Please model this.
Amino acid sequence: MAAPPQRNALTIDVEDYFQVSAFAPHIARSEWPNRECRVERNIERILAMLDARGIRATFFTLGWIAERYSAMVRRIAAAGHEIASHGYGHERASEQTPDVFLADIAAAKRLLEDLCACEVRGYRAPSFSIGAGNPWAFECLERAGYRYSSSIYPIRHDHYGMPEAPRHAHRIGQVLEIPATTLRLFQRNWPAGGGGYFRLLPYPVSRWMLRRINNVDGLPAVFYFHPWEIDADQPRIPGISAKTRFRHYLNLGRMEQRLHRLLADFSWGRMDELFLGSA
Model:
C-alpha cells in the first residue's frame, strides 16, 4: 500500500499591493487609507480556490488590514483556515527597536484574536526581516505569546535573508522557527517556497524543487504568496525602478493558473497543524 503524499504548508501573506516594502519610498503610510484597496476581492478568489479542493491554509494577516476588513478575517477563520500574524503595519522588524517591535506584534496578536475568537500562534515578519542583525526578535515573540515564526529566509537576497540559517524547522528559545522552503544544490540554498521566484521560474522547475524537498529531504515544504500576486489589474505605481517593476509585476496574469496547478500537484495544510500538531 502506497504511503500518503507528504503534506505541505500553504501560506498567504495578507497585505495589499501598496503595502509592499519595495514601494515604501514611493507611497507614504499616510497615503494608505486613500489608496484603492483590492485585498477583499483577491482574498475571495483565493478562498474559492481553496474551498474547491478542500484545502486549509495559514493566512499571515496584517493588523492594519484586519482592522479595516474584519468581516473578511472572520470569513477566513470560519472557513477553517489558520489566522496568524504579519504584524500590524508591515514595518520591517530589522528597522524597529525591540520595544517598538514587541508593541507591534502584541497589538496585532490581540486584534486578530479578538476578531476571530481564536488563538493566534504564528507570526511572519514583513519581508522576512528577522536575521543575524536582530536575534532579539525571538525573545519578543516569546514574550508576546507566539508559538512559532516563519520569519527567517535562509537565502542570499538584496533586501533580506540569512543564508547560514537552518533550512528546516528549528527552535530558537521557546519559539519554533519554520523557514520558507529552500533547496540545497551546488553548495547554495535556492528559493523554492514561492513569492516572486514562483512567478519568475517556469512552473515545472518549481514543481521539481518541491518534489525534491518532499521525496529526498522527506520533509514538508512551506510555500507562500500574496493576494496581490493574482491581481494583474492592480494600479501601477509610477516612479519605481526597473528592477522593482520587474519583480513586482512579472507574470501576475499567470499566477492564478500556476496556483491551480500547484494545489492539484501537492497535498496542503495549515502551518499549525503540520508543525505544532495538537500541542
